[in-house]
């Protein structure tokens, strides 16, 4: 989704080299702040760009840059099977997951979208239980699921009010369905064939997902009457920010952190990103930050924390390597 995939991360053995504290802080700041800010950047980008077309251009551009980067580092081209599997993953993660986000942000504040995206771990646990290894959730996991669903109900219930408008409720439901699509794609990615080089694997998914988003945009009539000359400078800058900082800087910092610290520490971005998105939306875009929103955020994020800890003990993955931009 913008994003990203909330909690899990690949298992990488930390580098024995001791990185400097300054480099660690800069890398964590990139993952926390840049990825948290992509939701607001999406809002600015779609102010004068059609949502699916914007997302398609975004991921095609980011995918092309990552592909060239990977090839310059000696990564081989993906096989036909890897391209096919990457397209399937891109369909779930980018077309379904990110497509829902960009469409819904036409009516739902970016901070609330980020908070709804944080429900991916809830979907992961439910899918693992119903269609995965069949392991029944423990009482603690079940309570975490119930708490998360209560927080979602509390949050989406507020979208029906006059403060947000009637379409916001529909947009909130679409974001939840997008989070489900992201969870399904994350599970599919477990058994898919992917290039060994992480940047090449991500580039394959981005290129396929970006192409699908453009096709959907064309089918939805977004290209009719649209002209690049109509796009504002703010939207162009937001799109450039999503491609360069979200994809290249943020993703590179994420990959580097996986090599020098634990995946559990890196996964903390899942708790920080929604908070960053809420604060930025309030400060820079006049998005409402109500007591209801803050209360729902506390309920949802604490439920995600419970599921992450209990799920890790029970080997129930609650996320996958994100494809963020």
TrEMBL record:
It comes from the Bacteria. Residues 26-155, 171-308 form the EamA domain. The keyword Ribonucleoprotein does not apply. Pfam families: EamA. Signal peptide: none annotated. Keywords: Membrane, Transmembrane, Transmembrane helix. It is found in: Membrane. The chain crosses the membrane at residues 21-46, 82-101, 107-127, 139-156, 168-189, 201-221, 233-257, 269-285, 291-311. It is a multi-pass membrane protein. The keyword Cytoplasm does not apply. Belongs to the EamA transporter family. This is EamA family transporter. The lineage of its organism: Bacteria, Pseudomonadati, Gemmatimonadota, Longimicrobiia, Gaopeijiales.
């Amino acid at each position: 989704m913008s994003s990203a995939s909330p909690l899990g991360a690949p298992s990488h053995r930390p580098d024995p080299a001791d990185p400097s504290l300054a480099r660690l802080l800069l890398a964590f700041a990139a993952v926390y702040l840049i990825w948290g800010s992509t939701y607001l950047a999406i809002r600015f980008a779609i102010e004068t760009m059609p949502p699916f077309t914007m997302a398609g251009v975004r991921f095609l551009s980011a995918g092309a840059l990552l592909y060239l980067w990977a090839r310059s580092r000696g990564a081989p081209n993906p096989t036909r099977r890897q391209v096919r599997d990457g397209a399937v993953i891109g369909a779930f993660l980018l077309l379904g997951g990110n497509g829902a986000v960009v469409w819904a942000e036409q009516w739902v504040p970016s901070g609330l979208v980020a908070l709804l995206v944080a429900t991916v771990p809830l979907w992961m646990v439910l899918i693992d239980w119903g269609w995965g290894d069949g392991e029944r959730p423990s009482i603690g996991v079940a309570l975490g699921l119930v708490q998360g669903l209560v927080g979602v109900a509390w949050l989406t219930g507020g979208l029906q009010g006059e403060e947000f408008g009637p379409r916001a409720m529909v947009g909130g439901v679409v974001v939840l369905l997008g989070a489900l699509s992201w969870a399904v794609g994350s599970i599919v990615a477990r058994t898919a064939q992917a290039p060994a080089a992480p940047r090449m694997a991500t580039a394959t998914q981005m290129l396929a997902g970006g192409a699908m988003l453009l096709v959907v945009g064309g089918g939805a009539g977004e290209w009719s009457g649209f002209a690049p000359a109509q796009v504002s400078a703010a939207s162009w800058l937001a799109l450039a920010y999503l491609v360069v900082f979200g994809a290249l800087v943020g993703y590179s910092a994420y990959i580097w952190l996986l090599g020098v610290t634990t995946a559990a520490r890196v996964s903390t971005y899942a708790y920080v990103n929604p908070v960053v998105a809420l604060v930025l939306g309030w400060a820079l875009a006049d998005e409402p930050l109500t007591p209801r929103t803050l209360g729902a955020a506390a309920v949802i994020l604490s439920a995600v924390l419970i599921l992450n800890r209990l799920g890790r003990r029970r080997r129930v993955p609650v996320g996958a390597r994100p494809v963020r931009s």
